[in-house]
Structure formats: structure tokens, C-alpha cells
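Following up on my earlier message about zinc ion. Here are the inputs again, as you asked, copied directly from the submission form:
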Amino acid sequence: MPARNTALPRLAGRHLLGIEPLAPEDIELILATAQKYQTRTPRAVRPVPRLDLLRGKTLVLAFFEASTRTRVSFEMAAQRLGMDVVNLALEASSVQKGESLLDTVKTLVAMRPDALVIRHRSSGVPHFLARHTDVPILNAGDGTHEHPTQALLDALTMRDHKGGLKGLRVAILGDILHSRVARSNIHLLSKFGARIALAGPPPLVPKDFERLAPSVTVHAGLEDALREADVVMILRVQLERLREPLFASPAEYARHYCLTPARLALAKPDAIVMHPGPFLRGIDIAGEVADSERSVIPDQVENGVAVRMALLELLAPPTAGLAPPAPESGKAGKKKK
Amino acid sequence: MKPLLIKNGRVVDPASGLDDRRDLLVEDGQIAALDKKIEKPEAEVFDATDLVIAPGFIDLHTHLREPGNEGAETIASGARAAAAGGFTAVCAMPNTQPVNDSVLVTHYILGRAALAQGARVHPIGAVTKNSQGEELAELESMRAAGIVAVSDDGQPVWNSRVLRRALEYCAALGLLLIDHCEDRQLAAGGVMHEGPWSVRLGLHGIPALAEELPVARNVRLAALTGARVHIAHLSIGSGLEVVRRAKEQGLAVTCEVTPHHFTLTDEACRDYDPRFKMNPPLRSPDDVAALIAGLADGTVDAIATDHAPHSDTKKQTDFESAPFGVVGLETALAVALEKLYHPGKISLPRLVELLSANPARIVGVPGGKLSVGAPADITIFSLEKKWTYRAAEGWSKSHNSPFDGWSFRGGPVATIVGGNIVFRS
Ligand SMILES: [Zn+2]
Ligand SMILES: [Zn+2]
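Thanks, got it. Here's what our run produced:
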């Protein structure tokens, strides 16, 4: 098989289905790779990279669920590496016409992409597809399960601002039950020795989350979780995922769970505020908090592109200047799960 | 037809307490003799050395998809799959298209069953029209036409007032009512057991309480009406506890457990494989332990498969979208041997009781015993033969098994229905 960039063998050809199955070394490698693509850190602002590292390779974005932020972030990442991007908004296409998920994906794989980014409203869809293709799959959010690229960009942001993750106290607040961002962050932070405090409306923060990973605690009130926090992460209320009324109204939610300056004052004085977006001003986060110095939301957005560039480089690595592999050997070269 | 002489097998017949080496003679579709040594020169001889001879297994809970969804299973293919699993009879749940809620459909099923080669098929009628839970079905007429029980399985009889009226009929008709216990509000949207695994996987959970509450309701309604109530596919320890107390009070409540529920836990859903998606869902390790204890101590009356075929197309999708249900006829005995008998949890007579004697008694069909003059419905199986189950090579038209690829020790060798060998491995 053609020689690969042997410095980066760990993740080549693998799927990124979630944070849970990754080893800490995998995560270290992704974050270290992302660092070289960062355009903005607390210490420096760098020019946007324009590379042709992955020229000639194709990325297919298959979004079965509408998303602007994550899709655009993947698109920018691919373009900055010189990849061709095929963008499919599947929520409005063949899937609606009754084509099976498997048939849709067989069609996508027939386009011979070098990586496939999938977002779907059902948990486990990337896992199902990974059983039917060797093309590296990047999970861009599956149902209420995982959103690994979000947790990676959050980790990069936290490291930039706090120096490291070990011993960090991270409060994650809001609708934990329906949040794939929360699950991916919990797995990642726990692997690196952070302590995670969860709080939100009682039905949205089940006690079973304490069994998800080590060092997770579920708290009865926001105040308890916020105390001594180094990082405060607010989650959006997933109104579209609620199958039943779990709180009286957005106003009632805001009264008790909105991150206001008064509540933020319970955290450490230098605590940073994060939000995966899109945020609901005045409902999950007060405008003055979102716009304050404490908010690192813009860094999160920029780091998203860097992390996704790193993943594309690692999962669909450059072929070291050799001729492109023959169709079959290209496939066989990939590690099977 | 030539007489059939089954020689030198270990005859296990819980009804008579027999567990010893015997010869067994079948003539004219009946058991003609059962003795230490039988000579019958003109008979065809079946050498059953090292094999177990048991009264034919009866599955209380089978979904055949005919009429309506013959692509997934027909009465003929299901009857053959049943025979291959050692079953001489199956009770067919009424949730076909149309639902078996009328004499017309009952007659159709019996007509197709008469043409099938394999296990006998006993139809179960619906409790309510179209199993909607609102208006009673033709209970008395279907009873006269040959149904052996009523059930709205697939759905619970959610309306307690309707259930009470149905049970009043059942008490008078001596008809068994089988309920799929599920509180639809508590279970709404759920695709797997609610617990640490559903939280981890981001899948909506079905709490154990959604099953326990209707079990408790059904016990009280059995007490009120005097009818016999059978709890389908019991999957939780707390529900089993309710049944145990009901039995202590002398109520006519029975229950069944499926091989997948006493073998697998919710952790099996970890790879989002729809072959582990069924309703009720795979439960916690504590529930599995409680079910095994109930199988051993007599609280559980029967092992039933809840054989629920779905075509590959239907099941080859993501976990949330896939339909509930797994096939089970061809693996039930082997799984029971593997998980219950070989580890010493239950004796061989108890295993036969769970698969044959008790189911026959619960639905009141012939069989379940090996006495002279009884119909020659006989299951012959091995305790030792090594084999691997490949769902794609099975007799069912569907392959949605959680046990695909499992290697087993022991399994069906021959199945005899009315004196005919309908399956031989
Ligand atoms: Zn059922
Ligand atoms: Zn069923």
C-alpha cells in the first residue's frame, strides 16, 4: 500500500463516532494538530491558513438534520486544506421521499469521498452507517448521543484559557438529558481528570449521569453546581427534542436556569463562560453575560474550524506525494473497526 | 402409516414425574406404548440413545405475519421454523393485517395452518376490535371457532374499563386473557430500557415502572372478575414480585419469560444494533437475575419466544427507526439449555415443564404430557450436540435474531407432530 505520513498513524482511516471510544492519546493528538491551525488564542491572532495538504480529496457533508454552524465550520475546514466539498442537505431530499437510510448512504459512498460527515436527529445513525462503509465517518452530532467535534473544540478553548483540564471544575447547566454536547464534553473532561458538575431542571438532569463517567456529580440547583467553577458551560434548551412539557414556559425556565451575572458571581472570579450555540438570549444566558469579557464563545467558533481541520488531516491523511492508490487498495488500506 | 418406535431415549415427562430410559411407540398419531423395552418388528425405529424425549414444546407467544405481511413470515414458514426449534405447537398472536378480531380471520388462519407442515398453529383472538382497546371483539364466536386465548399483544389493553368487561366474558368462557403490560404514557417514545445505558447512548428510555403498573392492575382485575390472566413477556424483577404475591393469594395469574429477557441485558444495545431492540426492552442485570430466580423457583410458568419476524429491509436501519421485535423459535431451546440447564439453574424436568407441560395447561390445549393415548406430539433433543446458529440459514423468513452466530451445546434433533416427523436435524 502507498506510504502514509507515518507521523500520524493513530487515527488514519478510523471513524470518529464519539469521544467515549477515544483514548486520551487520540484526543491529545487531535488537539495538538488543531493548535497549528488556530487563528485566535488568548495570546495571538494568526492569519487564516490556506493549504493544499488534502488537495484532490473529497469531503461529503451529509446533514440529515438542519444545521448552519457545524456545517459551515466543516466546509471552511475542508476548504482551508484544499479539499473539495460536496454539501448535501438531506433533510429535504431523498430521505423525505422514503429512500432507506442505507440506500442513501450507499449512494454517498459511491461518490468515493475520502471522509463523510454525518449529522442525524437519531442517536446511533453514524454507528449504523459505520457498519456498512470503510469511508471514515465523522459524527457531527447524532440525536441526543454525542457531538465529538464540539467537545474537542471546547477542550481546546478551555486549555487555552485555563492551561489544562486536570482538576478543572466545569459546571454544565441546562438540558443535559437531550444534549449530545453534554455527553461528549463529560466523556472528554472526565478522561483528563476534570470534575464535572451538572444542574438544570430536575427531569432534564437524571441521576444516572453520575454513572456516565468518573468525577460527574448531579446537583439539585444551579447555585450548587456553579460554586467554585472554573468553566461554566450553558446548554441550549432543546425545545425541538422535548416530547413532553418539562417546564412551564420559557419565562419560567429563564427565572430559574438563565445564567445571569448574579448567578455567575458564584463561580470563580476568573471563570470563563461557554455556550455551544445557538443561544437563546434572556432564556438560557443573559445578554450581558454572553457579551461580557468572561464569554469565550467567539473562541469556540474559531477553534471549531481548527479542530475540524485537524480531524480531516488525521482521518483522511495526505498520501505523501505518491500517486493516488487504486480504488481497491485504497479501501483495503483502511483499518477495520 | 408405519408405527414409529423411539428407542432408548431419556424420557422426561413432568406430568407423570417420569425421568428415565424408555422406549416409546407411536401408532395412528398417538402414543401407543411407553415401556422399558418395546419390540415392534414392523415399526420404523428412531434411535434416541443419548437424546431426551419430551412432550412437544408449545410456544404461547408467536407472531406469524400472515395475513398481511407474508414477506416477513407466513403461517407455513413459521410452522416450519417452530418445528425446527422443537415446538410442536405455537399460539399465534392476532396482530396481523387484518387483526384476528373476527371469526372470518380465525377461520382463515386455521385454514392456512391445516396446509402448513410443521408445528400446529393455535390462533389467539384479539380482545378488542382491531386491537384498538376500545370496543370488544367477537370473543364468544372466536372462542367457538377455535381460538385458545385472547390478547391485544403489540398493544396493552390500556383501557381498564374495557379490560374489566373482557375479563368478565373470559371468566364465563373459561378463556385466558394474555396482556402485553405497558403503560403507554410512561413508555411513550422509549426505544430501550431506561437506565444508565439509555442515558449513555442518548436513547429514550422505557422505565421498568411502565411494565410493573399494568401487571399490578391486571392482578387486581383478575381478583375482581375471577378470570385467568397471563402476563406476556415479563421482563422486570418488580413485575415478577407482583406475580409472586398474586400466586400466594391464590389468584389465577400466570406469566411467561422470553429467552432474550433471561439472557441479555440493556448493555447489548451499546452498538445501536436493532437486533437487540424489542418491546419490552432488554432490562438490567438485576432484572435478568430475578427472572432466572423466578424460572427456577416456579414463579415463572412458561418460556415463550415472542417470535417477531421483521424483514431485513425493515431492520437494516438505525436503532431508533427500526421496529421492535426479534425472532426466537429456532433458538429458544438452545438458549434455555445454555443459560438455565447447563449452569445448573434448573433441572431437565423443570425445563420441559416450562416449555411444554405448563403452556399446555395455561391455554388448555392437548399435549404437554407423554401418556398412552395422548397425541404423539413429541420433541426429541440433545443436551450435548455442538452447533452454531446462523439466522440467514434458518427456517424463518426473517433473520432478526439477537443470537445470530451464537454457538450452542444442545438443541432440537427431531420434532414429531401427530405421529409424523416434521423436523429432523
Ligand atoms: Zn407484546
Ligand atoms: Zn408479542
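One observation from looking it over: Chain A touches chain B at residues 20, 100-102, 120, 122-125, 127-128, 142-146, 177, 180, 183, 206, 208-209, 211-212, 243-244 (CB under 8 Å). Hope that helps, and feel free to reply on this thread.
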